[in-house]
């Protein structure tokens, strides 16, 4: 019969990796977004493009990043969160309980609100960059791009950290059995 594990220290190494697999998998996605963000922002902070990057290449990379983050959030809301929400109230769009739910999940119930807040800035920046690409401008306005990035950078980075925290083994084992964890996304990493 399926049983819930008692405590993280009672898990075997495999079991811990099984319960932690979504945190590891999600963090790998987020790390890609963080790295590209840092690279794009550092160019804004430098105030000019490196000599080997054209304005078109910079905007092109940024457009790819925006589209990938958009797809990531759509996938989460359409496929991942509904599955998690079957057991974990914090992943339901209508969840509005205090910061710790009845099972002790130490997370803030803001995941959908964070996505919306991120997209207020992200969608505007995405449209700005698409318009730039359509007009084939010669110069790229790094001050304006930085201003827009600063508008949603804090909530984006906080969201990426908090989402991973919610998926850590310590939380997942409160809601899911080992057998159920096998059926959730991501492979167990050795
Ligand atoms: Fe995510
Ligand atoms: Fe997310």
Automatic annotation (TrEMBL):
<dbReference type="InterPro" id="IPR012312">
    <property type="entry name" value="Hemerythrin-like"/>
</dbReference>
<protein>
    <recommendedName>
        <fullName>Hemerythrin-like domain-containing protein</fullName>
    </recommendedName>
</protein>
<dbReference type="Pfam" id="PF01814">
    <property type="entry name" value="Hemerythrin"/>
</dbReference>
<feature type="domain" description="Hemerythrin-like">
    <location>
        <begin position="26"/>
        <end position="167"/>
    </location>
</feature>
<dbReference type="InterPro" id="IPR053206">
    <property type="entry name" value="Dimeric_xanthone_biosynth"/>
</dbReference>
């Amino acid at each position: 019969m399926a049983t819930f594990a008692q405590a993280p220290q009672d898990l075997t190494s495999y079991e811990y990796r099984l319960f932690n697999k979504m945190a590891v998998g999600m963090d790998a996605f987020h790390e890609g977004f963080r790295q590209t963000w840092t690279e794009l922002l550092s160019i804004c902070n430098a105030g000019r493009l490196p000599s080997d990057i054209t304005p078109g290449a910079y905007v092109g990379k940024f457009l790819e990043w925006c589209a990938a983050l958009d797809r990531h959030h759509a996938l989460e809301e359409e496929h991942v969160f509904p599955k998690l929400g079957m057991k974990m109230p914090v992943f339901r769009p209508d969840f509005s309980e205090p910061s710790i739910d009845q099972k002790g999940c130490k997370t803030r119930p803001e995941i959908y609100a964070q996505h919306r807040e991120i997209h207020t800035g992200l969608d505007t920046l995405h449209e700005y960059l698409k318009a730039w690409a359509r007009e084939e401008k010669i110069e790229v306005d790094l001050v304006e791009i930085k201003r827009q990035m600063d508008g949603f950078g804090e909530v984006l980075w906080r969201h990426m950290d908090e989402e991973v925290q919610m998926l850590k083994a310590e939380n997942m084992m409160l809601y899911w059995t080992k057998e159920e964890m096998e059926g959730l996304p991501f492979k167990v990493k050795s």
